[in-house]
Amino acid sequence: MSSLSLLFILVLPIIGTLVIWPASKKNDKMGEIFVALICGICVLFAAFTPAGDFLSINTGFHSIRFTLGDINRIFLLFSTSIWCLVALFLTGYVHHMENRARFWGFFMLTLWSVICVFLAGDLLTFYFFFELMALFSYFLIIHQESTEALSSGNLYIFTTFVGGLAVLGAILIIYNNVGTFEFEKLNLVIEHGGLKGYLALVLLFVGFGIKAGCLPFHFWLPRAHPVAPAPASALLSGVLVKSGVFGILQILRYTNSHYLGLVLIILGILSTLYGGFMALCDNYPKRLLAYGTISQIGYIFVSISATILAGAHSLVAPYLHIYAHGLSKTALFLAVGYIYLKTYEMKQLKNLTLVPLAAIALAGLNLAGFPGFIGYTAKILTKDLLLRLSTQGMFFHWVEVIFRLSGILTAAYLTKIFFCFYESYLKHRVKNPLSNQKEFNIMIFVLFLLVFMTIILGFLPIAASDVEINLYSPAKIIASIFDIITGIIVYLKFKGHIKRPVLIPQPSYRNTVFKLTGYFGNLVQRYIHLPISIDLSIALFGISIPLLYLLLILYLKPY
C-alpha cells in the first residue's frame, strides 16, 4: 500500500496541469487556488510517505524506478515546499502576465519532472526526468518571448544539451561495465572500470555541474535569470540548480572518492569568490542575484566536500546550506518581482514601499549568516569542518580563509541590492506601506513566510541535538556580525567604483551543437560496445530528449 503514496505524488502535478490549463484561459481564480492546493498536498506526501517506499513501472524494456530514501525526502520536501509557496505567490502575480495558461502548464510540468528527479531509483530514470525538467523549464525562461529571452533560452538549452550528453555517455559506460543502471553500482565502476570508470565519473560530474551552475559551467545562469519572469527565476535558482547538487551527492554517496572531494572544494571556493565579486560589480538586480547563486552553490560544494573529507557522519551542514539558499533566494527573486510589478517595471517609483524591502533585508541577512537564521547555522557548521581539516595542511587553512572572505563579499553584494531599492524608496516614499489589493497582500504573505522559515529552520539542529558544537558562543556570534559589517563597509567604500567586466563571449550554438553531436556519436561507436537489447531503451530514454533540444536550438530563432 505504501507505494500508492509515491504514485499519488507523481500523478498530482499532472492533474494540476490538466486543471489549470483550461482554467487559466478562462481567468478562473479557483483553478489557480486548486493548483496551489495540489502543491501543498505534494508537500504533505513528501513529509509523511514512509521511508523506504518503492515504486517500479515496467515499460517493457526498462523499469522506471522511484524510491524514497532519506536524501530523496530532504530534496523532495525542500522542492515541493518552495513550489507551493511560489504557486501561492503566482495567484497574485500571474494576472499581470500574458499567456498565463502556458506558464501555469509548464510550471506544473516542471514540478512533476522535479519530483521524478528527486525520487529516481536508478541512473536512467534520473537522466530521463533530469532532461525533461530542463526542457519544461526552458519554456518558463522564454515566457516573455523577447529577442533576449529566446537568445538566453537557447544558451540554456544548449548547455543543458551538452550536460545531458555527458550524463548519457557516463550511463553508457556504466552499463557497459556492470550491466545495470543502479546508483549502488557506481563504486564498482570506479574500482574495476579503470580509465573508463574515471571517465564516467568525470562525465557525471560535468553533467551535474552544468545544471548546478558552478564554475566553470556557470555562464548560462546570468543570462537566463534576467529574462525569465520573477517566479521562474525563483524556481530556477531556488530549486532547479539543486538537481545538479543532488546528482553530485549521489555520486559521492556511492563512490566515496577523496579526489572528487578535493576537486569539489576547489571549484566551490572559486565559485564563491567569482560569484560574489561579479555580483558586487553588477547593477541589474536579477543578474546580481544570478551571480549570487553561483557563489552560494560554491558554499554548498565547499560544505559537501568538507563533510566528506572530514569524515563526518552527517550531511547536516550541506543540507542547511541548500535550504538557506533555496528559501532566501526564492524570497529575493519574488521580492524583486513584486517591486517591479508594483512600480510598473521601475517607471513609477512612487509605488515602492518599505514592506518588500524588509523581506529583502531579512533574506539577505540569512544568506550573509546573521545569528538566528539558518544561514548562520550552516556557515558555523561548515567553518567547524574546515577548522578540523586545517590541521591536515595549509591548503585547508587557506580554504577556511577564502571561505570567510567569500562571506564578506556575500554581505557586500546583498547590501548593494538592498540599497539599490532603498535609495529609490527614500526619494519616492508613500504614506501607506500596504496595498489594498488582496493579490499584493498574498504576495507579501509569501515573502515573509519564506523569511520566517529561514529563522525556524535555523534552530532545528539545536532542538534536535544534531550538532556537537556550541553554535551561539560569543566568539562565533561576534565573528559573524563582524564579517557582515565588513561587507557593508566594503560596499559603501567602493560604491560606484566597481564595474562589471565582460568575460564571457557568446558562443555560436549551431556549429558547436553539430560538432558535439558528431564527437559523441564517434565516442559511442569507437569505445562503447552495447548489447542489442539496450538499443531501444537508450534511443527512447536518452537520445530522444537531446534531439528535442537540438530542434529547439536550430529552429527557435529570436525575432
Radius of gyration over all CA atoms, rounded: 23 Å
Number of domains: 2
Largest sheet: 2 strands, antiparallel
- Please tell me the overall pLDDT: 79
The arrangement of helices and strands along the chain is HHEEHHHHHHHHHHHHHHHHHHH
β-strand number: 2
End-to-end Cα distance: 52 Å
Question: How helix-rich are the residues, as a percent range?
Answer: over 70%
Structural class: mainly alpha
Oligomer: single chain
Order of strands side by side in the largest beta sheet?
1-2
Poorly predicted ranges: 431-436, 502-510, 527-543, 549-559
Number of helices: 21
**Form type:** globular
The fraction of residues in strands falls at under 5%
Describe this structure in words.
Helix 5 packs antiparallel against helix 10. The chain has a two-stranded antiparallel ribbon. Helices cover 76% and strands 2% of the residues. It is an all-alpha fold and 559 residues long. The chain is built from 21 helices and two strands. The C terminus is likely disordered.
